[in-house]
Amino acid sequence: MTAPSTLSLQWHKSMASIPREEWNRLSTPLQNPLLSWDWLHLLETSGAVRTRTGWTPSHVTLWRERRLVAAAPLYLRHNSWGDYIFDQVWAEVAERIGLGYYPKLVGACPFSPVPGYRFLLDPAENEQHLTTRILRSIHTMAVKRGISGCHFHFVDPEWKPLLEHCDYLAWVQPGFLWHNDAFKSFEDFLSRFHRNQRRNIRRELRKPAELGIETRIVPADQAPEQFFTRMYAMYRKTARQFGRWGCHFLTPQFFLELSQNKELCRNLLFTAGFERHGSGKPIALSLLIRKGNTLLGRYWGCLKDYDALHFNLCYYLPIQWAIDHGIAFFDPGMGGEHKSRRGFCAVANHSLHRFFPRPLMALFRQHIEAINRHQREGIATLNATAPYVFANSQRQWPVEEKN
């Protein structure tokens, strides 16, 4: 029997130094466009991900001779803007006990609080062995460079136990998820609501037409380039409404190059609003991503405020499309307790953390279970008070999960 060849590990300052075909051979089976070479490379070439914006690429690859067997998209961070993991309180704790919090190393899909992050691994290899090898190298590099910790955001639930086995601690991150309970139609979905809320939603559904606005879904690979340029303008307007918390990182170049990438566009959808007697250009847009059997709401904006248009383009129209196309789940994006009044179940996503200074890790370990308990209680309360009859499987997953 021939002994397996040795593994060699490399660090990369950009996706450009990693062969596209090799990376996508590992990422394609995950059906997660946000972990594809094309998406990550586009973030870098468009100027969204770079040291100046606080996201320095520090990717890891693991090779067996010339074959890529593992890869980890990683970023060195000197702040927490765009993480969607609000860890500033831990930065304050570190400062109070005389420790530095930045730089930190983050594994994430940048600017996207979407569950599913994980290392990309060759299925013919031992998952635990490859994961442990990369984590050991991260630890060694972090100690040498004074990096305070390593953090994996919105991880794949199936990958979470392996990280916990490697002494990473889970932090519950509340989110929302719509579940397609074999609905035959949108009316079937509406039947799950309590009567008063069902009436409210019907009123919201009528509102765009009453305002002279037509809504429709346009697959990105059939959309004209102007959709992408207008999407940037609307994305920028939405981000600026929230000031520094708006996470305005994407650039005009990102959307322009996205419009030219047929591979990525196959997994993208626009929901669009048009004035009935207008110029034919969209006055409101939402961009969604298809990730396997899940639809992800990502970016939204409109030229001016229209009553209930956000609910139609960001919730109701995507739900209709998901029902029509047999999509199992729809993640509408972070925040907004109003989502629980529109058919979305509050759920527990997770980030995984390990601090390398022992005093900081000890404090995190001491308090994280109480923090998670509080988060789970909030999730349970939202679901218990929602005007909607959730499927039993929705109420049980993943709210009852314990660390």
Describe the structure.
Helix 8 runs antiparallel to helix 9 (252-259). The protein has 403 residues and is an alpha+beta fold. The relative contact order is 0.14. The model is unreliable at 395-403 (pLDDT under 50). The chain folds into 2 domains: 7-174 and 348-396, Aminopeptidase; 181-327, Gcn5-related N-acetyltransferase (GNAT) (Aminopeptidase). The two termini are 42 Å apart. 37% of the residues lie in helices and 23% in strands. The strands form 2 sheets. The chain has an 11-stranded mixed beta sheet with strand order 2-5-6-8-15-9-14-13-12-11-10. Strands 1-3-4-7 form a 4-stranded antiparallel beta sheet, with helices on both faces. Helix 11 (309-324) links the parallel strand 13 (294-302) and strand 14 (329-331).
Describe what is shown at a glance:
The protein is α+β, with helices and mostly antiparallel strands and about 400 residues long. It contains 13 helices and 15 strands.
CATH topology of the largest domain: Aminopeptidase
Proportion of residues in helical segments? 25-40%
Strand order of the largest sheet: 2-5-6-8-15-9-14-13-12-11-10
The H/E string reads EHHEEEEHEEHEHEHHEHHHEEEHEEHH
Tell me the radius of gyration: 22 Å
CATH homologous superfamily annotation of the largest domain: Gcn5-related N-acetyltransferase (GNAT)
Uncertain parts: 395-403
Kindly give the count of domains: 2
Distance between the termini: 42 Å
Q: Which CATH-level-2 architecture of the largest domain?
A: 3-Layer(aba) Sandwich
Counted by DSSP, the helix tally is: 13
**Strand residue percentage:** 15-25%
- Please count the beta strands (DSSP E, at least 2 residues each): 15
- The CATH class of the largest domain is Alpha Beta
